[in-house]
Amino acid sequence: MAEQLADSKNTINQTFQNTVESRGSFPALQTKVDGTYQSTTYDQFADQVKNFALGLRELGIESGDRVAILAENSQKWAVSDLGVLALGAVDVPMFYTSTPAQVEYIVRDSGSKIICVSTKRQLEKVNAFFDNVPELEKVIVFDSPEDLDGPHQIAFDQVIEMGRGVENGNQIYQNTSIKVEPEDLATIIYTSGTTGDPKGAMLTHDNLISNVKAGVSVLHVYPEDVFLSFLPLSHIFERMGGYYLAIYSGACIGYAQSPLTVRDNMGEVRPTVMASVPRLYEMMHDRILKQVESSPPIRQKIFHWAVSIGRKVSALKQRGRNPGPILGIKFALANKLVFSKLKAVTGGRLRFFVSGGAPLPQSIAEFFHAAGILILEGYGLTETSPVISVNTLDAFKFGSVGKPIPGVEVKIAEDGEILSRGPHIMQGYHNKPEQTAEAIDPEKWFHTGDIGEFDAEGFLQITDRKKNILVLSNGKNVAPQPIENELKRSNYIDQVMLLGDNQKTVAALIVPNFDAIKSFAQDQEIDDGDLSLLLADQSVNRLIRDEIRQYSTDFADFEQVKQFKLIDREFSQETDEMTPTLKLKRNVILENFADQINEMYG
């Protein structure tokens, strides 16, 4: 199907229309209602989009106007998005975890006239500042019409009904939608950022669809595929990789109820393709190992035997070779005894995972591939729509982020920074011409801020964020992410952040695996009743130091952690120490744990 659409006009509107015409009676979306997943066909989906667009038009939305979306992933999110774009308007998505102050900043900066919210909780965030933002005229509420308490609030279903009542609605919708050109602005996505105010990346229809087409050409997505959507649609990774790419291919999207129910929803939706950030794969890996450790010795032995066989097969497949007859028989047995049970957790028909948003530890990718589950890691940014490079079914290398996708240029600057150029590069940052000039040079190269290199086979490898590089007092440069990822291979280390800027040595804040630490304490007959005392125990700290030493052998002496502090809670979004895509906000963590850091460095 992707080939049939190759010559289509590069707008999201045209892409959606093409798919509706060819896949109208097939499932487009799946949503869980009253305990059961129910399907919406592409024809039904399109009817909702049309009427919502016409309803927005009745509310005064015109081409170029901004409409914000503050909501969890849902069918109504998708209807709102496509309805806005059908009018030639621009949508401004926000993470549903945003604070009222963050929402106000984005609404004000973008000049949004309407905001769509999902629940009473999100409505309350907008109510906190509505009267202070005169540009904001209406709030459309997805759920609970009874929560409406002002003339500026209107229910989502009411907007749909307004659209149904428009005379000659079909013709108006078609004429408006088709007028949108590839170079027209489609969305302003505010980067979550780890420092300072968020910047609004302005992406056109062509930015997004050119990236979708290039992605489909290398990932081979088909109409028969089923996606499970759980990463925030407000983030470009899910929006392109789990939403627009699926629609372009005529596939079906199932919505997870929440990030906490993903495991159950995988079993219900039974996806064939799924995108996630590395944290999900790390948690799955940890849960599997924990279950193995609590199982009888014979099952543990079978598991480790199966993984060893899987690793041999994985090594061959990475070199493009198939296992011989004897190894093939052993792998078939390992699959029957162990791996089939792991695959069943994903629904049993997964073709591949896609990983992005943060670095995927190589050990995690290797473990899952040994079990017959392929994770394809890619690389990109909000400003690049987002994909720059990705591993594929035909060419993958763990520890890399794949090769550049078609139409995307990549080069490495003299200082090691990754630069990219092509139709995927944003138009600039909204209301920030100076930052735009800093990011995009006169030759149209976008400066990613990431450090990387190409290997001999053309696979791109990311070393670290340019701004994350630690410069020790002796002038040595330390890239923290590879070291952090290696340390997290330890069963006793859950999260870690390296320190050392302007210091003589590298130190670390470490969030231990609390269950593993308590199990160790019980084996050593150490009192684990008080977590603070447990983390201060000499035996526990000796254990962590031994783990650090074990997983640091491949690093230079100046790169190795010389001192550390164990933290008694996780870094999280709730404490503002992680972005919505679960990357560490290093500056926030430095501030929150200043006392512990000062204690380490005296």
Helix content: 40-55%
CATH architecture type of the largest domain? 3-Layer(aba) Sandwich
Say how many strands there are. Answer: 26
Distance between the termini: 63 Å
Main sheet properties: 5 strands, parallel
What does the overall shape look like?
A: globular
Would you kindly provide a written description of the structure presented here, covering whatever features stand out?
With 602 residues, the protein is an alpha/beta fold. It has three domains: 12-272, 3-Layer(aba) Sandwich (Rossmann fold); 276-348 and 351-465, Rossmann fold (3-Layer(aba) Sandwich), CATH 3.40.50; 469-601, ANL, C-terminal domain (GMP Synthetase, Chain A, domain 3, 2-Layer Sandwich), CATH 3.30.300.30. It contains 21 helices and 26 strands. Helix 2 crosses helix 7 and helix 12 crosses helix 14. It starts with 11 loop residues before the first helix and ends with a helix.
Q: How do you describe this structure in short?
A:
This protein is of the alpha/beta class and about 600 residues long.
Search tags:
21 helices; 602 residues; alpha/beta; Rossmann fold
Please write out the topology.
Layout: H1 12-23, E1 27-33, E2 36-41, H2 42-58, E3 66-70, H3 75-86, E4 90-94, H4 100-110, E5 114-117, H5 120-127, E6 138-141, E7 153-155, H6 156-164, H7 169-179, E8 185-190, E9 200-204, H8 205-219, E10 226-229, H9 236-249, E11 252-255, H10 262-269, E12 273-276, H11 278-293, H12 297-318, H13 325-345, E13 352-355, H14 362-370, E14 375-380, E15 387-390, E16 403-404, E17 409-412, E18 417-421, E19 428-429, H15 433-439, E20 446-454, E21 460-465, E22 470-471, E23 477-478, H16 480-487, E24 493-499, E25 506-512, H17 514-523, H18 531-536, H19 538-550, E26 561-566, H20 586-592, H21 594-601
Parallel strand pairs: 1-11, 3-4, 3-5, 5-6, 6-7, 10-11, 12-13, 13-14, 25-26
Antiparallel strand pairs: 1-2, 8-9, 9-19, 14-15, 15-16, 17-18, 18-20, 20-21, 22-23, 24-25
